[in-house]
Each structure stands twice: as structure tokens, then as C-alpha cells.
Amino acid sequence: MTTVAPPLDVFRYAHDHFHEIVWMSQNTNHLFPSGPVEEAIAKAVKEKRYQSYPYAPGDPTLKELVRKDFGLTDCEVGIASGGTEALYMLTRGLLSAQDEVIASDPSYLIIHKFIELSGARTVNLPIYAPPYRLTPDRVNEAVTPKTRMILLIDPLNPLGSGYPKEDVRAIAEIAKDHKLLLLNDTTYRDFADAHTLAHPFYPEGTVTVWSVSKNCGLAGVRLGGLLARKELYDRIWKYNTNDLGVNVLSQAAAVAALQAKPKAFPAVARQTRENQKRIHDAAKGWKGVSLPVYPSQGNMFVLDVAERGVDPEALQRELLLNHGVFLRAGNYLSPTSGKRFIRASFSNVPADIDRFLKAFPLALETLSRPPPKVAAAVAGR
Ligand SMILES: Cc1ncc(COP(=O)(O)O)c(C=O)c1O
After folding, report:
1. Is 153 in the pocket of ligand 1 (CB under 6 A)?
2. From residue 152, how far is each of 135, 184, 342 by CA, in Å?
3. Does residue 106 line the site of ligand 1, with CB under 6 A?
4. Which of 20, 170, 185, 288 could form a disulfide with 136 if both were Cys (CB 3.0 to 4.6 A apart)?
């Protein structure tokens, strides 16, 4: 039975109860060792680096670390206040009114919003059915004379689908053959078993978006950016509004985290996988709940609750208010299938997963009960 939830600012509530909440709502990473980052920020604070502007183009050490991490030596590295800012800039710089961008539904819809702000529109291919990702054939069929860009988010938020190498190559070749731009958002790539960058298949037309929010557990410092060859980079970067540079403390944190990542990340990936397996195994016992994509190649996946007849927004609210567990209802990730699912991220400590595993079936049970009036009527019969 579906319960309709009154409006509630769930983020305000979660931040007001920050320390009591299990954060599984925004694909954040609570496993990356914090030592090097804390030291780097403390050092930068002690040196009062915040009193001066940063070196405006971005810390060269940070740029070099990013370039090395991706192995894209022919690219310029753009440093921004998160991948988000880079996504805004690149849509602004590369798209015009009437352009079309081939994308998916579900998707990370903030990018679609930026595309629309540039005057272009997205052509959303529905992918909430196997294989739960774009395929080269469908992308190819969707190309029209107005198509200007293909959006390839790999691994895909929210489903956790990853693209096989042959599909990345084929999609890059479609972009190249039709002289389109390819936006390869790689925010979650470190969580994948294997990941293929699109850039080497189409270097002149690919923009690669990177972030330290998820892999390095630095969502709060707001740091990310893009990689592109100089010609593309220059077209994008003239729209950079952050002309005096990105937060110095954030850049110091990112340098420390990227230096630590090669050694630190394998344990993060292992724990993330173990967590998702625990959820997967438990979900087998939850009636009317299914996992469309398993294993996820990201640090999130969706739990489909449509068969259970539960409203994801009501479930989000019940989990948050009555169990202190914060997941994200699907409506903000898909206009068509978002009413079917709730998204869980799981780069969390095992105790968080324990709380989730206890809370989720209880919340389902609460929401599956008939409302009191009906229950009374049934009892009186
Ligand atoms: C696919 C995708 N791209 C970009 C971002 C933004 O990342 P950042 O925190 O670097 O702005 C997110 C954040 O959730 C995301 O899911």
C-alpha cells in the first residue's frame, strides 16, 4: 500500500542530524583514509594559505597528478569546484540553441539541466531494462542532423552499469564518424572492475570529466574538473567564472588524496564490493524488491520497489526519519522510472550497512501496512 508523503527538506533534516545519519544518499565515500587529507588541510591552514588567492590556473602538482591518474598526456587539465562546475562550463562552451545531446533515462539529470540551460535539448533513450545502459546501436539510430554531443556516464549514476570496452570504442567511433562531441563522465571509474576511457578512441572530440568527490571521499571540498585537448579545452575554459582559482584548501586536500590513492583505494574498493554483496544477499529475502544491476560498477545501485507497491519518496522519508538512514528516491534521477526505485550508495563502514540492513525491511513493512482507517474497517468486518 502506497503512502503519500508531505513535503520535507530531507537534506536539511539530514544535515541537522549529521552525526546520527547513515549517509547512503549521495554516493559519497566514507572509507578513504582521512589522515593525509587532514594533514594537508591543517598545513595549508597553518601556513595561512587562505589569506592569498590561489595560483589561478590551478596547482601544477594537482594537474600533473590528475593527468597521470588518467594517463591522458595529450590533455589540458581543467580544475574546477567539482565536476559539476566543469560540466556547466563545458555545456555552455560547446553547445548552442537547437543542438541535441543523446543521453539516457535514468541519468544524472543535473547534466541534462545544464544542457538545457545552454539552449540545447537532451534526447533521453530509456534504459531501465536490460542491459541498463546505452548500446551503440541505439545511439547510432538516435543520431540526427541536430545531434551535437553524446553523453556517456560510465559507470552510470544511478544504476551502476559499466560499459564494456567494445561499446566504449563503438560509441566513440559513432561520435567521430558523425563529428559529434563525446562527453565521458568518469566520476565513478575507480569503483569499476575494469574501466575504458573513451578519449584514446576519439582524442580530438572527447571531454573527460573527473572528480575527487567519490573516489577520494572529498565530496565536501568541491573539487573536480575536466581533461580535453587544447583546442576543446580553450573553447570551454573561456566560460570559467572562477577566474581567481579554486579554493586553496580543497586543492591541497586533493593533492594529498590523489598521492595516497594508489595505495589506499584497493581497500576502499574491496569494502565497497563487500557492502554491496551484503545488500544483494539480504535483498533476496525482501519480497517485491529487486536489484536491476548487480554487481554495480560504481559505489551505488538502485533497489526497485515497484512490485512491493511502495512509493520511493515515502520510503526515503520513513528510512530517514524513523531509522536515521538516508537513501535517495529515484524521482530526481528519472522522469519515467524514478517512481519505481530508491538509490543506495555503499562506500560506508560496515556498521552503517548493518543499520541499513536492519532498517530497510522494517521500513518496507511499515509502508506495506494498510492505513489505520482501512485496518479498523477490516477489523470491524
Ligand atoms: C555522474 C556524476 N557526474 C558528476 C557528479 C558531480 O561530482 P562533483 O562532486 O565533482 O561535482 C556527480 C555527483 O554525484 C555524478 O554522479
Report:
1. yes
2. 11, 5, 22
3. no
4. 170
